[in-house]
Design goal:
The chain contains 27 helices and 19 strands. The chain is an alpha/beta fold and about 650 residues long.
Length: about 650
């Protein structure tokens, strides 16, 4: 056994019986797996190495990386999967550990600029407010009132403002529409203040979106958002490759085009006579964006660029949009000196025109992908694709492989890197995630969940279900689940591979004796809160409920997964990635489809047992688990739950005399 470093020993001592955390944090339990993980993190910090660690639910991985980060005194960036987890880490976990250890290190919370109030855009909205409803007027009045008393300008402070409110883009900024040092509110900018706090802090908590936005900006040579760090901890690291593909690509959408047109008109009130020249080009741009969406009406919801451009009626609409952007850009050029806002709008028009031209592709297209110029070789192939919403569109250019820029940034940082999650390994190895993250050498640690699976859980594989593609699969599934739900008294998550299957199940369960909560009927956080409070509810959800959802205790005692979560075949990026693997001589199913599905299944299964006192049944309905050879890979990647095909075992598990 390798000797433990000084930091490693200090970390182990802090997590031991009767030590700092045990004395100061109520309910703290000494966990050997947590100590091993914490020592591995400490070793990575001291050696400036790379650690890849899967820590099963119940390991206590948050404390396992916070303790070494705090005791090392090293400048550390901690990145989490979502803003909700970021807030939980910063406002709950980090203060508890810091206070227990008695360290005086400074900490900071840093989010992307879209999370902070922009005073300039709020003032612009005051002067030219076009609200579509009375509710938006009320929301804006709340924002204005709050703006006078907030210290940090974090929009999350406004509980009454929905996360998807159309007001948000009107009172926050983007990298495109920020005026920078030309802004009259620069001296009191909340984004600038947040970055200044991060520059001087010892530990900075960010989310993956901000971390990756920083890497993408560095690649383009615009400088960094995050301060230089000696150590990075990436929690929920399984999400990073997919998110990285978004940030190393680029996109253009209907909403930014419409916002550009309206912002250009909004700036006219500062410059006498400008409206006469700007109004018509801005109107034409807004109309061109709407016309393009109309022209795409008959296309599938998602597809590749060549599919869209193959339609004779669509190409002229793209050309009209390009012409409109060019005209607005040229109109704004002589006004750039008149106002900072016009200069920003001119730059945005030029940038969006460039994005559109690159999406339309100049060069030979192969299998729906385009070779790109002036980008690193390993991300030189991008898939150009579109996605339609009821009133808008998104044109996206996504690289198929981001391992090279991730590797380069990691090496250039000369920092320690810790990648951790409850779901990184597939069938006991890390090959899939190391390839996608561009990791050539690292220390690997696999810490299984310490829960007592024999006592706490059961995995039920219902017998005699038809093939998942069969027409009667949905009704047969509900028939198989009804006795399980009767035995558990509801208290279940039913996770579906598609919205269509979810709707069918909701219809079949409409008269069931348990409160029914269906994804889409209410905001997610409201749905979860009502589910918890019901005590016997049945919640129906899709992929978004597979992770980041924590329902401990008796309220959730059954998790049902209807089908193995293979990625949708209509995803153009996934399809292009599989094609690239095939052309490179690989096996798309073995190398990509299977590992991705295994990690997704592990995420869903991880909703069931969250604490040492939870008990529950995992119901895996897909008959391919026992009928196909690859079913073993899924089952062997899960925690060691006892398995059964007998309904009587499930009924006995929930019987009152058991436990």
């Amino acid at each position: 056994m390798a000797p433990v470093s000084r930091l490693g020993q200090g970390v182990r001592d802090a997590l031991s019986e009767g030590a700092a955390l045990a004395q100061h944090i109520p309910g703290f339990v000494v966990r050997p797996a947590q100590q091993r993980l914490a020592v591995a993190v400490a070793d990575a910090f001291e050696s400036r190495g790379v650690l890849l660690a899967e820590a099963g639910t119940g390991t206590g991985k948050t404390f396992a990386y916070l303790v070494p980060a705090l005791l090392s005194g090293m400048k550390t960036i901690v990145s989490t999967g979502t803003r909700a987890l970021q807030d939980q880490l910063y406002f709950r976990d980090l203060p508890r550990v810091r206070d227990a250890l008695g360290t005086g290190l400074a900490t900071a919370l840093l989010k992307g600029r879209a999370n902070y109030l922009c005073r300039y855009r709020m003032e612009q909205t005051k002067g030219d407010a076009r609200f579509s409803s009375r509710e938006l007027v009320t929301q804006f009045q709340r924002v204005v009132a709050w703006s006078g008393r907030t210290q940090f300008g974090d929009m999350a402070e406004l509980d009454a403002l929905p996360e998807d409110s159309p007001l948000l883009p009107q009172v926050t900024s983007t990298a495109d529409n920020c005026l920078g040092t030309d802004c009259p509110f620069w001296g009191e900018c909340f984004v600038v203040q947040a970055r200044q706090r991060a520059q001087t802090a010892d530990i900075v908590v960010v989310n993956h979106h901000l971390l990756l936005a920083d890497l993408a900006l560095k690649q383009e040579g615009f400088g960094e958002i995050l301060p230089g760090a000696q150590a990075f901890v990436v929690d929920e690291a399984h999400q990073l490759p997919e998110l990285a593909a978004q940030f190393f690509g680029e996109g253009l959408g209907a909403r930014p085009l419409v916002e550009l047109a309206r912002d250009a008109i909004g700036e006219c009130k500062h410059v006498p006579g400008a409206l006469a020249s700007v109004q018509e080009p801005a109107r034409v741009l807004e109309q061109a964006a709407r016309n393009l969406r109309t022209a795409m009406d008959n296309l599938p919801q998602r597809g590749t660029a060549w599919r869209a451009l193959d339609e004779v009626d669509i190409e002229p609409a793209f050309q009209s949009l390009a012409d409109a952007l060019r005209t607005l850009r040229d109109t704004l050029a002589p006004l750039r000196e008149a106002a900072p806002g016009f200069d920003a709008c001119h730059l945005r028009a030029n940038d969006q025109l460039g994005r559109l031209q690159r999406w339309l592709g100049e060069g030979e297209m192969v299998s729906g992908t385009f070779p790109e110029e002036n980008v690193p070789d390993t991300i030189s192939t991008s898939v150009h694709w579109y996605e339609l919403t009821p009133r808008g569109f998104r044109l996206q250019r996504t690289p198929l492989d981001v391992s090279a820029p991730l590797r380069r940034h990691r090496e250039d940082s000369r920092a320690a890197w810790v990648f951790t999650s409850a779901t990184l390994a597939v069938d006991g190895h890390f090959r899939h995630i190391t390839q996608r993250l561009g990791i050539d050498e690292c220390v690997e640690l696999l810490e299984p969940s310490p829960f007592d699976w024999d006592r706490q859980a059961l995995c039920y594989l219902p017998p005699r279900l038809p093939e998942p593609a069969a027409r009667d699969y949905g009704p047969a599934l509900i028939d198989a689940l009804m006795p399980v739900l009767r035995a558990s008294g509801g208290r279940a998550f039913l996770l579906f591979a598609s919205h269509r299957a979810l709707r069918e199940a909701a219809d079949l369960l409409r008269d069931a004796p348990w409160p029914l909560f269906v994804q889409g009927s209410e905001p997610r956080h409201v749905l979860l809160q009502r589910f918890r409070e019901s005590g016997n509810g049945v919640l129906l959800g899709t992929a978004s409920f597979r992770e980041g959802v924590d329902v401990a205790g008796d309220a959730l005692s059954v998790v049902v997964i209807d089908k193995l979560p293979f990625a949708a075949p209509d995803d153009p990026v996934f399809e292009a990635r599989l094609d690239a693997i095939r052309r490179a001589g690989g096996n798309p199913f073995r190398d990509e489809q299977l590992p991705q599905a295994v990690i997704a299944l592990k995420q869903g299964a991880g909703r069931l047992i969250r604490t040492e006192t939870d008990r529950g049944v995992l119901v895996l309905c897909d008959p391919r688990l026992t009928q196909k050879s690859y079913g073993r890979v899924f089952l062997d990647s899960l925690p060691p739950l006892p398995r059964t095909r007998e309904l009587a075992d499930v009924q006995y598990f929930f019987a009152p005399h058991v436990g």
